[in-house]
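Many introductory courses stop at the sequence. We go one step further.
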Amino acid sequence: MTVEDTLTDPLFDELRVADLRAGYGVKWGRVSGDVLPAWVADMDFPVPPVVSDAIGHAVRNGALGYPQWPDGNPLRAAFAERMRTRYGWEISAGDVREHTDLIQGLQLVLHLATAPGDAVAVQTPNYPPFLASITTMGRRRIDSPWLRTSGGWVPDLAGLAGAVAEHGCRVLLLVNPHNPTGRVLTRDELAEIAAIARRHDLLVISDEIHAELTHAPHEHVPFASLDADTAARTVTLTAATKAFNLAGLRCSVAHFGPRRLLALRDAQPPDLYGTVSTLGVIGTLAAWRDGADWQARLARVLDRNRRRVARALAAWAGAAADPAPEAGYLYWFRAEHLGVSGADPVAEVLARARVLLDGGSPFGADGHRYLRLNMATSAALVEEILARLAALR
């Protein structure tokens, strides 16, 4: 155990369970009694002060009327600047559009670029709302399972290429950093995926919402930044919501590489898919412009927590323990590490340990064998959750 593993931060560790239970969010609102929630991807931490200050100032100064943005939504230029400074990815603000959330962006792109019956490739396990979106929109979901090796999670790129060719896929939904495994794809792996997309003329929808929570020494590489061909076939979806705990602001952005698709999107009735709120824009801009210190402190806390969960899993499963995520705050591990082997591991853990996790069959592939633990909470609550899980064994 290192010094970093024992450090605490009052901004993130002085949480009161009574306050969390009395809040407005679904994470704690879905449970009752003494159940501890560690399921949905919301953090328990307070909103960054720079965000609450900016929103409060805007409300006090009458910002709830119709916004005046003569040069277009300021999110567009701010996002382009953030990609340039963080990743060296040079994009035009004119190719950026905003949506109320990332899932809406995904569904809009699928609606415009595909038709019912078209095949969409996706690497599984994967985020359940993404999988459900493909299915409920009448598209054919083509799963390409990840491989669990002795060294950790590995994308089966040969399997992905084969699935795309066999089923005539039109689209690849890429999730990087990956949810739920937390794996960060390397530049070489992304280059192989780009080659597959080029050979089969795929539109790539790249969800990169967890990118800013990548843990050192891993590095996030925007998929569209690889080369001109990749950029021209990729729509990148992201938001400040995961990295700054702002899901309720309902604000996301999309960068459109394909010119035809952007023109098709802009030809739609302007309010058909809704518009982002003024407060969502103000909060996002505040986070991006002034939230670096808060985010740096958050990164240290999340790294500490993932190390703590990794030590617990190693104690329970030894060398068979599933690896810590390389990004984010969601830990994907086999239910058997807890002695749980039923068809519904989430329900079994809830009933026996009074902890609500996520996982199971909605994630696809072998999801029924896995659980997903949200670690974005105080050190004390992490310890209590781990103690309850340990008692299952």
